[in-house]
């Protein structure tokens, strides 16, 4: 069951890295984030942006959350600027679908730890850690959005 003020529909999380882009998707009620795939980052041909556009269409996504790797101090460095630039490219490609930004500090650390605890070796982790980080980003966003809806409706 979704929160009272919740707009039903799938959300997509994008964890843009310099080499790979992790993708995760939610269920329509926004309860659970699930890993979807890892794309190769394409800085020139933009095949990664085209692939995300196709995913958004296929899954009927109503919102995209892009991870922003803010430093532990809260300062925005070069990685944040790169993530913001990627979010802007997505906003252009996916308009009018909203593109939101989510603080993702330590998501890759959390994802790597979870994969290690699941018994996955480092070589196999490399292929899926970006998806797992996207899951963490999306689940944090979903949980916060539902909590805010419950607070605003007095639940």
From TrEMBL:
Keywords: Cytoplasm, Hydrolase, Nuclease, Ribosome biogenesis. It comes from the Bacteria. This is Putative pre-16S rRNA nuclease. It is found in: Cytoplasm. Residues 9-111 form the YqgF/RNase H-like domain. CDD domains: YqgF (cd16964). Pfam families: RuvX. Belongs to the YqgF HJR family. The keyword Cytoplasm applies. The keyword Nuclease applies. Could be a nuclease involved in processing of the 5'-end of pre-16S rRNA. GO terms for cellular component: cytosol. NCBIfam families: RNAse_H_YqgF (TIGR00250). Its EC number is 3.1.-.-. Gene3D superfamilies: YqgF/RNase H-like domain. GO terms for biological process: rRNA 5'-end processing. One of its GO terms (molecular function) is nuclease activity. InterPro entries: RNaseH-like_sf, YqgF, YqgF/RNaseH-like_dom, YqgF/RNaseH-like_dom_sf.
């Amino acid at each position: 069951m979704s929160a009272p003020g919740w707009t039903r529909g799938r959300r997509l999380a994008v964890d843009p890295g310099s080499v790979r882009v992790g993708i995760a998707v939610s269920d329509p009620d926004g309860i659970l984030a699930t890993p979807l795939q890892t794309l190769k980052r394409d800085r020139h041909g933009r095949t990664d942006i085209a692939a995300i556009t196709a995913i958004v269409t296929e899954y009927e996504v109503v919102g995209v959350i892009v991870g922003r790797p803010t430093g532990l101090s809260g300062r925005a460095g070069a990685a944040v600027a790169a993530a913001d630039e990627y979010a802007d490219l997505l906003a252009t490609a996916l308009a009018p679908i909203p593109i939101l930004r989510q603080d993702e500090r330590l998501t890759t650390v959390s994802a790597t730890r979870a994969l290690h605890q699941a018994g996955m070796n480092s070589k196999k982790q490399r292929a899926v850690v970006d998806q797992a980080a996207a899951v963490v980003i999306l689940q944090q966003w979903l949980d916060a959005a539902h909590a805010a809806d419950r607070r605003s409706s007095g639940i």
